[in-house]
Amino acid sequence: MPFDYAPFSEIFPCVCAIMHQGGIGTTAQALRAGHPTLVVPYSHDQPDNAARVERLGISRTIPRKQYSAVRVIKQLRELLGNPNYAAKAAEIGSIIQAENGLGVARDAIKQ
C-alpha cells in the first residue's frame, strides 16, 4: 500500500464528482470541495443529509436498496453532463471555504 491514510480534504478538491455514504463529516468535506456528489445513504443521518444536498442542487441520491452499477453510471453521467450541478457546487464550496469556522467558534466560546 503506497500510503496508510488519504484525507478527504486533500482528495476531494482534485476530483470531478464525489460518491459517498452521506455521513455529516464526509458531506461537509464534499460541500467544501465544491464538486457535485452522488450519495448512497446507509442509515442514521445519511438519508437526511442526502436529501439536503440534493435540494441544494449539487447532488443525486441512490437509495441503498436500489444500488447497482448501471444506476451509478446513469447518475454520474447526469451529474457530470449537466453543468448546473458543477456550478452550484462550486458556488457553495466558495462560500464554505470563505468561512472562518474556527475563529467564529473560538469567539463564541470566549463569550
The name of the CATH architecture is: 3-Layer(aba) Sandwich
Rg for CA atoms: 15 Å
The CATH H-level superfamily is Glycogen Phosphorylase B
Percent helix: 55-70%
Largest sheet: 3 strands, parallel
- Runs in which pLDDT lies below 50 for 5 or more consecutive residues are none
Q: What's the mean pLDDT score?
A: 96
Structural class: mainly alpha
Briefly note the CATH topology name: Rossmann fold
Q: Which CATH class is shown?
A: Alpha Beta
Could you say which overall geometry the principal axes of the C-alpha atoms support?
globular
Q: Numbering strands along the chain, what is their spatial order in the largest sheet?
A: 1-2-3
* Tally of DSSP helical segments: 6
Q: What distance separates the N and C termini?
A: 47 Å
**Element pattern in H and E:** HEHEHEHHH
Supply the number of structural domains. Answer: 1
Give structural notes.
By secondary structure, this protein is mainly α. It contains 6 helices and 3 strands. It has one domain (8-110): Rossmann fold. The chain has a 3-stranded parallel β-sheet, with helices on both faces.
Quick gist of this model?
The protein is mainly alpha-helical and 111 residues long. It has helices spanning 8-11, 24-33, 46-55, 69-81, 83-98, 101-110, and strands spanning 18-20, 37-39, 59-61.
Secondary-structure blueprint of this entry?
Elements: H1 8-11, E1 18-20, H2 24-33, E2 37-39, H3 46-55, E3 59-61, H4 69-81, H5 83-98, H6 101-110
Parallel strand pairs: 1-2, 2-3
